[in-house]
Known about the structure:
eight-stranded mixed sheet, 14 strands
Amino acid sequence: MNFIKKTWSRRDFLRAAGLGTATASMLYYMPALALDGAPVPKRVVFFVSPLGSRIVGGWRPMLDHGAIVTPGDLGPILAPLSDYAEKMLLVEGLDIGPAYWGNSEVQAKGHNARSCVWTGANLYPVDSCSGGDIGFASGHSIDREVQMGWGLSPSKLHTVSIGLPGCLEARAVAYYEAAGSPIAGESSLQNYFNTYWGAGLQNAGNADRASAARAKMYSQIRDRLQALRQQLPARDHVRFDRHIAAVDALHSELSNTAVSTCLAPEAPVSTGYIPKMQLGKPSNKDLVSQWFTMIAAAIRCDAGRVFGVQYGYDGHTGFANGIVPSGITGNIHTWSHSANSDPVAAQLMIEFNAYFAKELKSFMDLLADIPESDGTTALDNTLIVWGTSMSDGDAHSSRNTPFVLLGGGATNLKMGRYFNFGNWPAQNKGADHDGKPHNHLLVTLLHALGIEATHFGSDDIPSGDLDGDLLL
């Protein structure tokens, strides 16, 4: 069976309303904000890396369930984060829910699990440009749930794809607006920079005219969508109403928010789109750093509060010789398939994952240097959640997928601790190890962020949470 995309995306609405793609891109624009004395907002950054991890001998600290993490406990993958051991919560023993508890019509483990990590949703088959065992998630991702739960306008939710993901399929996208509606994300640093700090947007002489033009545009969108709503059957009204409400929120924010100057970051060095197969080459070694620098600036300027970030493609991700200290060459996806038998491949996978830990540490440093109005820092008020689709890329196992939570001082999470909810590996790395569905962690993350939930993801996955262990 083929799953045909019938849901309405924001672009669908704008096209139906007779508005062009230039206007569509403006819908995501919000001016950089620096509101003195305003309540300190919470933020959350979801990040997913490809090809799995190396749990034993790389990621796992040799600690008991619930133990305090110290810098000396961290293995080679997480060692770059040792300065933030007290602001770290390590969780393993969780299996990707749709892969082992759900009823996906498409394989939901291995590379395809990228589409399940933040949705917790089963996969359904779609027609795809790449063919094969391809699917999309059957629900929206947790970043979208947080944006709605916090009552934020869509402009506060930023989706970033570091490297062009290529063909949109389960292994290429982690973030979804709705069932069957993946979000490719912004892949150009220059486009992202121009959206929030581009020519004329931060200059006082142009600010009033730009604001008036955007307000007029929002009003036009709203009127046309409202007229279009009357032409549709009742079953489509709920989704239309949600989009119309989002436009109203944006319009209100433009009209009522006092805008003051927020210093723009330096313009990006990388200005074009980087194909997924080129990401790890020496010429692109600073790309992740540039993206996290830009996201930190967006947090400083209150341009965004919820961020969904993904690196590359969960499969063919090219070389890594530019980002790993050993300089090992060759396709890292191919190397990952030998990590259980070849020590060189195992070392490469450790270094590859440690690279992301190093970049996240630098990101945390940037946030720690951003003061808040109440004397805290942006790091204190930002939760970073790092996940991956697999525990073991060689075995394509999505059992015991590890999660790293960072920052999060404004939540009630038990930072500075390690929790293991399973007994992996059991007979083999793909076998049942009495773990829990990772959907339970997604529910607890929502609770930690102040959002009520009893379940997140597909209904056939057992409900539950990890509150008793992870929350104070």
